[in-house]
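User: Can you help me understand a structure? I only have the sequence.
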Amino acid sequence: MKRIHYKHLLVALLTFSSLQTLIAQIPPGYYTPADGLSGTPLKTALNNIIKGHVEFTYSGSGTDVWDILKETDRDPNNSNNVILLYTGASVNGAEEYNNGSGWNREHVWAKSHGDFGNSNGPGTDAHHLRPCNIQVNSDRGNMWFGNASTPHYLGGSATGNFYSTADHLWQPRAAIKGDVARMIFYMATRYEGQNGEPDLEVIDYIPSSSSSNNPVHALLTDLLQWHTEDPVDDWERNRNDIIYYDYQNNRNPFIDNPEYVGLIWGGAIASSISYEINNQPKELLKIIDMTGREISPKPNTVLIYIYSDGSRQKRVLAE
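Assistant: Let's start by predicting it. Here is the structure, written out as tokens:
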């Protein structure tokens, strides 16, 4: 029989305003081993804190991922429903797939990028698994995350997501861009190749093959930008608490301490945001491709423009 979490029968009845009071109940001393660290030492310390979590099955007679997501992503205005990641729609939580007419589970870190499938550990980690519209899940597939310009539609209506077929990129709707980034950063920190687990890494280039099962996910530059543009909110904090206290007994450090992102990956931030805000003059120094090679401008290719003020800007020139 599947376990019932009585605590969250109450949580499910709360209004959204009440939900906002349930914020980040971080255990005292949880992050003490990470104090004062940055870069690789910080990432290693965080891995030591969050690894070894309680694992659940993807589907089973006991508590499984379906059960967890019905708690973590429950609609605060309708206790029977869950909120879908890429559309924001509220749907009946009891309709687990339901022959294709219900909802399914999105691996935010695409499971093919690391070839871990639905196996215990990365394949069932609730910190990056979210309820999703079945068609939208299929449309995203295993696309990398990055800025894109083609609007995504579902049933004739824009979903707020964008994609690029040429670059195999998916850009989630604005309200969850930061959520997605922090889930990717969590996965790259939690899974470091120990005990048969994949060693997941965030990269800042587009791999030549989207079908490769190498344990990497792009694009770091855009994920860093999204993390800044869409800060942590109370929905994420509440979800983090539920996963920690009721299920996995580990937390997403980048929800509790967003500054960790900059301390680990900040040197790779490649954005022109600061220039646009401050309106400071700058000079183009060089143009590089996604592998870091300096090249001349060419159309329909993702290129990085490096400027004299230290900023970078990813651009695609139309032919």
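Now, to help you interpret it: The first helix runs from residue 7 to 11. The first strand starts at residue 74 and ends at 75. Let me know which part you'd like to focus on.
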